[in-house]
Amino acid sequence: MDIHAVAVETLRLEAEAVGNLQNFVDQSFEESVKAIYAMKGRLVVTGIGKSAIIAQKIVATMNSTGTPSVFMHAADAIHGDLGIIQPDDVVLCISKSGNTPEISVLVPILKRSGNLLIALVGNTDSFLAREANFVLNCTVSQEACPNNLAPTCSSTAQLAMGDALASCLIALRGFTSQDFAKYHPGGVLGKRLYVKVEDLYKFNEKPQVSPDDSIQQVILEISGKCLGVTAVVENGKVVGAITDGDLRRMLQRNADFHGLKAADVMTHNPKTVGSQVLAVEALDMMRKKQITNLFVVDAGQYMGVIHIHDIIKEGIY
Predict the structure, then answer these.
(1) CA 76: distance to chain centroid?
(2) Which of 55, 142, 139, 132 has the alpha carbon at shortest distance from 97?
(3) What fold, for 198-313?
(4) What is the pTM of this model?
């Protein structure tokens, strides 16, 4: 067996199956999107076998992008779980064949309850397709499985069609990155979209010296506040920065530093960031400038320091 050849052929066939779905984005697809967008209830997504697994992924995507959805296993539905479905719900039924025994029992019940039924199906001549209000065609010419049996191309096509539905609904809702963050507060994606500089810098010390302070005072401030930097502040405004690296370079140049002041060694016009800026944007600034700290400044007033480690510890990269 040529492992490389089998793998490449699998990917080729699945890519071809997904590519062919473009030909099936028709009026029925558009009406399905409009029906889901206009529904007053939830989208109930059901299926059996591999289709049930795809259904769960579609539900997860819909819920995370503003379309309330719930998964119902087709086998469990006819053994009590039909109570999940409420009068205003839309049902999306996923099946490759559209003729499985569970689907054949479930569909007439759904029709009697009056719920709008959307079929995501690989056989448009099937029982499910004939009974549905709208049909999403997911026909594939063959499976990628060497025996043309295991759902591979068909399940990939179902997944892609579900993503196409979700993407259309995202566009219709005007769903923004800020909306996305509300539904993902615990993940890295969400944190990148909602954690701001103000959420992190307040936990740090606020190192600062005046331009006339001695080098000894500068050293004590940097060491005591444990951030490797201090702001040089005059009338509440940051006029300079001194890092521990600046002190080392000063010592290399000046054996006697007792007469020096903060103003003599500070870097003028240091980089600053506002407290309302997203932490990920502050991180990008640090990386581009190859620095590890930014002074937080609001309305010209010095507020504190945010360190690159503060952002990374939050799980933002």
Answers:
(1) 31
(2) 139
(3) CBS-domain (3.10.580)
(4) 0.74
d(CA 277, CA 280): 8
Domain covering 3-175, topology: Rossmann fold (3.40.50)
Alpha carbon 227 to chain centroid, angstroms: 31
CA dist 35 → 43, 110, 118, 170 (Å): 10, 16, 9, 14
Q: Residue 151 in contact with residue 54, Cβ under 8 Å? A: no
Instruction: Provide the residue ranges of all domains of the chain, joining segments of one domain with +.
Output: 3-175, 198-313
Q: Is the pLDDT of residue 255 over 70?
A: no
Looking at residue 57, its pLDDT comes to 98
Asked whether the predicted pLDDT for residue 173 surpasses 70, the reply is yes
Tell me the per-residue pLDDT of 118-148, one tens digit each, with 9 for 90 and over.
999 999 999 999 999 999 999 999 999 999 9
Q: Which of 278, 305, 309, 302 is nearest to 294 (CA)?
A: 305
Nearest 5°: the CA angle 51, 78, 45 is: 35
DSSP H stretches of helix in 184-293: 188-194, 198-201, 215-225, 244-253, 262-265, 279-289
Which helix (H) or strand (E) segment holds residue 182: the answer is helix 177-183
157 by DSSP, 3-state: which? Answer: helix
Q: Given the structure tokens 């984005």, which residue do they identify?
A: 25
